């Protein structure tokens, strides 16, 4: 996503040459002076100011999310802007106002989940209506390196902004997803010099280059997620996957975080979630989104002092002797990067679970939460673990059914950021969301793809973004602080944007109303939810199980598909089913079983016998 946080930025945008806008669904809605209030005979309630909804705890059941009665639930909603960002007077509205509109059924918004991004820069600013010089590096776009905030800052932020939104969710029937929102991109100053931005916007003098880590550098790409202890593994992967040669790089082109940054990031995550998860542990309707968009390192290009991340990713033809197709997200070699991510982030997930047991927990993945494909193959260990997926108009992540749908068949997936911008963003070219790829600026194929994906897969979609400034902005920008679309949320419906998901998601939201979005009451999660590993899970290591090790059982090659030391996949087909039980029973006395009792002692009594067959059957 792109965030534009400065008043001067948005005012500059309003001075752009006007675009020709064709007659559209938005134009029709504005002409009638109202929004659609009934779809397919489904009546819409009045202004939801008096809603009181008992939101029960939800649980993961396989790849589904279920209520306390075991009924499948689909969560659908939107992202709002950082509440501290919205406290700035020039923006014209507050987060509570925005939240109320986003959950107002009389305006056609059937939203049962709202994602709330919390940015480290605003945590560190520690003030409402922050001025640019009050931000960590003295300007809105400067890098918020780890270690800028402490526990008291997080508590202040919760009291000032989050408490009210959590309460609003309980009142208005919407789950609240609190999102630790470290993100890319934030830009080098020099990248804006040709985009018509007033140079007075920038408060620091350096233009990046070799000095990009200097405290006065104005902007950089996001912090890498890796740990100090993973650097050698990363260099091994760079060598094994021929990355330097494929992208015509030298070792000096590769940037990895120094220990003082990577260790500070680790401490920052624990600090944030120790406070936030503990504070809202008693609120069943709060979901914890552990990490928004880890960027690199991943297979391919994650940037460096002279290059921003993404500059070389997915080239049409790889330089050197490498093959660009080797670095596709779904290539088997790319799983190694995802495995590193799981190792790094598991302690952060543990901190959330320890402080708020039983809640839904979500997390992103490398490459701006685009490695969702690998989630089923190496799951995080948590009772109600779910995964996020972010995608805009990148052609190399199509079809959505492959890169995100296949994962959704095995694990719960929150499609928690998606959208497009016809013609590009306000200031910075955004080829990854402006439809400028293989469809030459035609956004309709991407829109159709979103519709088919949401219809065909049980994902939980949250459009980005229910705002007039965070792009793709579902409402027109207007001029901040003036009564033309940014004065207050009460008039936003007159400015619903048809060049982004605004008009489209408003209509889709109404069409989907009533589909698995009501919740059976209850104080405890569904007792029979299956929160174990999915049927595809094989843990870290190469595709196919724990390394290449198999055990010959009759005519089969048994495998350990979930890395627990037990070889439940007796037939070696990648799944555990009744066929495995039958094969195990038929070959119970075979040498492969009898000579490897630790691998087939499913009931844990130290012996191999018929009770192990029954135990394996009960696990299916």
From TrEMBL:
GO terms assigned for molecular function: calcium ion binding; hydrolase activity, hydrolyzing O-glycosyl compounds
Acidic residues composition-biased segments: 549-572
PROSITE patterns: EF_HAND_1, EF_HAND_2, GLYCOSYL_HYDROL_F5
One annotated GO biological process: polysaccharide catabolic process
Naturally occurring in which organism (per UniProt): Natrinema ejinorense
Organism domain of life: Archaea
Stretches assigned to the EF-hand domain: 598-620
Protein name: EF-hand domain-containing protein
Residue ranges, compositional bias (Polar residues): 1-11
Keywords linked to the UniProt accession: Glycosidase, Hydrolase
Keyword Hydrolase set for record: yes
Pfam families attached to this UniProt entry: Cellulase (PF00150)
Signal peptide: none
Xref: InterPro entries: EF_Hand_1_Ca_BS (IPR018247), EF_hand_dom (IPR002048), GH (IPR017853), Glyco_hydro_5 (IPR001547), Glyco_hydro_5_CS (IPR018087)
Region annotation (Disordered) ranges: 1-26, 297-325, 514-580
């Amino acid at each position: 996503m792109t965030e534009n946080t400065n008043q001067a930025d948005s005012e500059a945008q309003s001075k752009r040459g006007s675009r020709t806008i064709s007659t559209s669904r938005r134009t029709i809605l504005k002409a009638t002076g109202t929004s659609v209030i009934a779809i397919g005979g489904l009546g819409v309630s009045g202004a939801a100011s008096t809603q009181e909804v008992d939101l029960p705890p939800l649980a993961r059941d396989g790849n589904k999310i279920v209520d306390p009665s075991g009924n499948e639930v689909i969560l659908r909603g939107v992202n709002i802007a950082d509440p501290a960002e919205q406290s700035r007077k020039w923006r014209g509205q507050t987060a509570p106002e925005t939240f109320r509109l986003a959950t107002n059924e009389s305006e056609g918004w059937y939203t049962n989940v709202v994602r709330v991004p919390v940015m480290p820069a605003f945590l560190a600013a520690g003030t409402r209506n922050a001025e640019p010089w009050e931000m960590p590096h003295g300007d809105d776009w400067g890098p918020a390196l780890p270690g800028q905030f402490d526990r008291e800052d997080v508590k202040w932020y919760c009291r000032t902004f989050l408490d009210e939104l959590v309460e609003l969710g309980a009142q208005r029937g919407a789950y609240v997803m609190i999102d630790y929102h470290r993100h890319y991109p934030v830009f080098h100053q020099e990248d804006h010099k040709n985009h018509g931005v007033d140079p007075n916007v920038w408060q620091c003098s350096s233009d990046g280059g070799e000095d990009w880590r200097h405290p006065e550098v104005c902007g950089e790409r996001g912090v890498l997620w890796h740990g100090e202890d993973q650097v050698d593994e990363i260099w091994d992967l760079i060598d094994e996957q021929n990355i330097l040669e494929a992208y015509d790089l030298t070792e000096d082109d590769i940037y990895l975080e120094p220990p003082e940054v990577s260790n500070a990031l680790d401490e920052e995550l624990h600090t944030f979630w120790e406070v936030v998860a503990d504070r809202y542990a008693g609120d069943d309707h709060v979901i914890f989104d552990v990490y928004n968009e880890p960027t690199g390192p991943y297979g391919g290009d994650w940037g460096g002092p002279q290059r921003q991340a993404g500059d070389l990713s997915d080239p049409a033809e790889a330089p050197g002797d490498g093959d660009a197709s080797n670095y596709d997200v779904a290539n088997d070699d790319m799983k190694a990067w995802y495995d590193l991510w799981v190792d790094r982030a598991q302690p952060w997930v543990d901190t959330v679970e320890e402080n708020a047991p039983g809640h839904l927990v979500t997390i992103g993945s490398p490459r701006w939460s685009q490695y969702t494909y690998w989630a089923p193959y190496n799951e995080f260990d948590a009772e109600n673990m779910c995964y996020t997926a972010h995608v805009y108009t990148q052609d190399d992540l199509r079809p959505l059914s492959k890169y995100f749908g296949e994962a959704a068949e095995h694990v719960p997936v929150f499609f928690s950021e998606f959208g497009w911008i016809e013609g590009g963003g306000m200031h910075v070219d955004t080829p990854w969301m402006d439809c400028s790829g293989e469809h030459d600026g035609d956004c309709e194929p991407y829109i159709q793809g979103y519709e088919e994906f949401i219809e065909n897969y049980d994902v939980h979609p949250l459009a980005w973004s229910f705002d007039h400034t965070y792009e793709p902005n579902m409402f027109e920008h207007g001029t901040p602080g003036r009564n033309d679309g940014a004065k207050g949320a009460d008039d936003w419906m007159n400015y619903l944007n048809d060049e982004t998901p605004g008009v489209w998601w408003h209509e889709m939201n109404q069409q989907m109303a009533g589909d698995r979005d009501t919740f059976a009451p209850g104080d405890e999660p569904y007792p029979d939810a299956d929160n174990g590993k999915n049927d595809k899970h094989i843990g870290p290591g190469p595709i196919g199980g724990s390394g290449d090790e198999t055990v010959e059982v009759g005519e089969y090659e048994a495998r350990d598909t979930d890395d627990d030391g037990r070889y439940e996949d007796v037939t070696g087909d990648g799944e555990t089913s009744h066929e495995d039980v039958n094969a195990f029973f038929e070959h119970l006395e075979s040498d492969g079983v009898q000579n490897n009792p630790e691998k087939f002692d499913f009931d844990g009594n130290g012996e191999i016998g018929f009770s192990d067959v029954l135990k394996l059957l009960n696990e299916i």
